[in-house]
Write a sequence for this structure.
C-alpha cells in the first residue's frame, strides 16, 4: 500500500518556515514506530529538515529534488515526479511505502495513496503550508478516529482516511 502520514491543525495547516507547527512527542513516536523498517518517500526539503539533513535510521528513503545535481548519500535520489512515482510503485509491489512530506509531495500524491494516517491537532498553528482538506473530498472517507490525547499540551487525535477512488500508478 501507499500511505501518507502527517499531522495537521484544524485548518489543515502542516508547516511554517520549513518546520513543523507543534512539538508532539507522542505523535513523533507514532511516526517512528509506524515507518520503521519501511520505505519512506519525500521531497528534498523534508530530507533537509531532518537532524544534520541525514536520512532517518532503519528506513529506505526515496527523495525527489528538481535539481539533478542534488544527490544525497544513503538515499535513492530521483529528479522527476514520474521517476518518483515509478520508484514508489516498484517498492509498493513488495511492501508498504509511506509518504512523509512535505506539503508539495503530500498534495501531488493525493490521487495515488491508499490511505492517509492523519494526526489532527485541535488548534490553529498559524501555518504557511497546507494539506488537501480530506473532509471536503468525497474520494476520502474517515474510517478511524481515536480519542483525544494530550500531547505536550496539545490535543491530538489519530485518524485514518481511505481513498475510495485511488488512481493506480
Ligand atoms: N505536518 C507534517 O506532518 C509535515 C511532515 C513533513 C513536512 N512538513 C512540512 O512541509 C514543509 C515543507 O514542504 P515543501 O513542499 O517545501 O517540501 P518538500 O515537499 O519536502 O520538498 C520540495 C522539493 O521537492 C521538489 N519537488 C516537488 N515536486 C516536484 C516535482 N513534481 N518535480 C520535481 N521536483 C519536485 C521541489 O523542487 P522545486 O522547489 O524545484 O519545485 C523541492 O526541491 C515544511 O514546513 C515541513 O515542516 C510537515
Amino acid at each position: 500500500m501507499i500511505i501518507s502520514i502527517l499531522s495537521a491543525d484544524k485548518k489543515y495547516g502542516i508547516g511554517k518556515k520549513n518546520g513543523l507547527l507543534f512539538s508532539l512527542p507522542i505523535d513523533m513516536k507514532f511516526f517512528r514506530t509506524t515507518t520503521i523498517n519501511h520505505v519512506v518517500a519525500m521531497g528534498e526539503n523534508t530530507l533537509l529538515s531532518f537532524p544534520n539533513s541525514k536520512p532517518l535510521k532503519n528506513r529506505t528513503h526515496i527523495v525527489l529534488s528538481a535539481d539533478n545535481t542534488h544527490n544525497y548519500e544513503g538515499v535513492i535520489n530521483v529528479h522527476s515526479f514520474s521517476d518518483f512515482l515509478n520508484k514508489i510503485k516498484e517498492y509498493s509491489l513488495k511492501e508498504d511505502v509511506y509518504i512523509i512530506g512535505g506539503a508539495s509531495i503530500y498534495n501531488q500524491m493525493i490521487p495515488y495513496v491508499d490511505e492517509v494516517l492523519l494526526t489532527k491537532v485541535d488548534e490553529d498553528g498559524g501555518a504557511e503550508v497546507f494539506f488537501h482538506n480530506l473532509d471536503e473530498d468525497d474520494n476520502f472517507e474517515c474510517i478511524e478516529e481515536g480519542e483525544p490525547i494530550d500531547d505536550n499540551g496539545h490535543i491530538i487525535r489519530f485518524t485514518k482516511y481511505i481513498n475510495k477512488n485511488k488512481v493506480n500508478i
Q: What stands out?
A: Residues 6-7, 14-15, 18-20, 42-46, 49, 64-66, 80-81, 100-105, 108, 129 surround NAP (CB under 6 Å). The chain has one domain: 2-163. Helices lie at 25-35, 44-48, 81-92, 103-109.
